[in-house]
Amino acid sequence: MNAVATLLPYWAVASLLVIGLYITIAAGNLVKKLIGLGIFQVSVFVFYIAIGETLGAGPPILDARFTRYVNPLPSVLILTAIVVAVATLALGLALAVRIREAFGTVDEAELAPLTDSTLPPSPDAGSQP
Amino acid sequence: MTTAAILVVILPLLTAPIVALLPPGRLVGTAAFAIATATAVLALQLLAATLDGSVVIHQLGGWPPPFGIVYRIDALSAVMLSIVSVAAALVAWFQPTAIVDCVRPTDRARFTAAFLLALAGLNGMAATGDLFNVFVFLEISSLASYILIAMGARQDRRALTAAYDYLVLGAVGATFFVIGIAFLYMVTGTLNMADMAARLPGASPRAVEVGGAFLLVGLGLKVAIVPLHRWLPNAYAYAPSAVSTFLAMTATKVALYLVIRLGTSVFGGNHIGGIDLSQVLPALGVAALLFGSAAAIAEQDLTRLLAYSSVANIGLMLIAVGLGGADGIAAAVANLINHAVIKGGLFIAAAAVVQRFGHARFDALAGLARTMPLVFAMLVLGGLALIGVPLTAGFVSKFAVLEIAFRRGEIVLAIAILLSALLSVVYVWRVIEAGLLAPAPKAPPPPPPGHAIFQPPLLLLALAVLWLGVDSRWSLGVGAAVARSLGVTP
Predict the structure, then answer these.
(1) What is the ipTM of this complex?
(2) CA of B446 to nearest chain A CA: how many angstroms apart?
(3) CB–CB of A24 and B160 under 8 A?
(4) pLDDT tens, B331-379?
(5) Which end of chain B offers a freer environment for a tag, N or C, measured as fewer CB atoms within 10 Å?
(6) How many structural domains compose chain B?
(7) Phi-psi bin for B487: left (phi > 0), alpha (psi -120 to 50), beta?
(8) Domain count, chain A
(9) pLDDT tens digits, residue range A9-18?
């Protein structure tokens, strides 16, 4: 029982990781790709928190009730990574909006013929002054 | 000197928000050039101080390692800092003119701020001695690059999809990198690279193997190792020309620096986790060399051609890193330096073409030898250097790898390098043919105002290509000093 409880977070991490990565690669909609990317990154957040967690341990403060403490460093680290993930997601969504404005679609299959590298350059009408 | 170790990072980092608030006008470009030049001077000072094997260490907040974050500049870090900062200074010089057509006047201050953030991020990756700090700076430089690439949309809307693709792949790569860090932290309990190197031998080998694999794949996306290169050609082709120049000179190289750093200083013995770089990287390098050179031949656009040639050149550097040993590392560093100089010159030439004709497809190159002689001369010289013709920088670095391959009996590698040189003759000839033999247009558009600004960096890099081709002290000599300071056994 204890072994299952200890490994449970890691099973969750592995599942979220492959689900997220699969959506990122397989989804045709640019916004859905970013949702997949979000799930993928959340799996890493859980992973870091799970590394620091110790079953039956207390918070890392001086207290007579606890003799074992949770490692705070992974949580602090992942706070940074969460900020980075939020910024990446915001920028990705902003780009998706701009792509919708410039091409009229956020579907990869419809974008492919419009973004072919042999086409002559076409300025983005939306960004003209 | 220890202050310089942190100034190369925080000078562009802290001045970026100030530059973003400056009023539109000439001041923005001048400020960016001054900041980038100051950073370059600091980086070159660090290089001069570390080439003898000494190490400059700055403890952030006075906390000693491994409790605090340290910035640790050895010769390898200093070489990377110098490449990135000098590239930034060159690009900042012509950047205000080059972005006139693609960035609105009101956006230029913020564009320049993003450029400085990219510089800070890339320098941070090279300077820091803390593995998680590397990830943070990787993301700073990446986020700034995505923005800079997307700014090409006013010239070509495909810049938006190029930036999006790079964002998704870059985020996946960076997340793989951070997963790898987690595995190593699990078994070593430290993030300081030197401390980690000391604790890794006693760590659980399974976790180290998995962590190393995640690190290498994550970095592979950033280095654009074939088949993880899909983001690179579009990102370089549709970005504003100043941005593609800067990224081509720096971005993939800093990621490759991390591969070298992990393989020598952290894991050691040319391994990353359980992966033997001397078995993996040469194979990947051969694939990149042949694929990149062949793909460049089919391109109809100068920037895309140069981008695929970069994919091929990354392959050459991977072979050098994979061969390993003191001479392999020296050859890899020489390739990093020489390729930055050659590709810098070629991309600035392409930027000058884009500035005048609005694009760099081959029909714009027609008659370039007469309409823009200096730019065409740089294209020819850089092209010869890409092939590896003697008396150019490309000869020194390509010959160094070739010589090691022959000496160690790696005939397949040697044949692949020679074959890619043959393929590069074809794509370089296509550029020369278009510029020299195709008739010039009857009425070429006149040079836009301020076009002469491209000339100083072009001349400087052209001279550097020739100088590095004759005097190998600044490429192979520096590389040998780096290998010595890393303590790589021959």
Answers:
(1) 0.94
(2) 21
(3) no
(4) 999 999 999 999 999 999 999 999 999 889 998 898 899 999 999 999 9
(5) C
(6) 1
(7) left
(8) 1
(9) 899 999 999 9
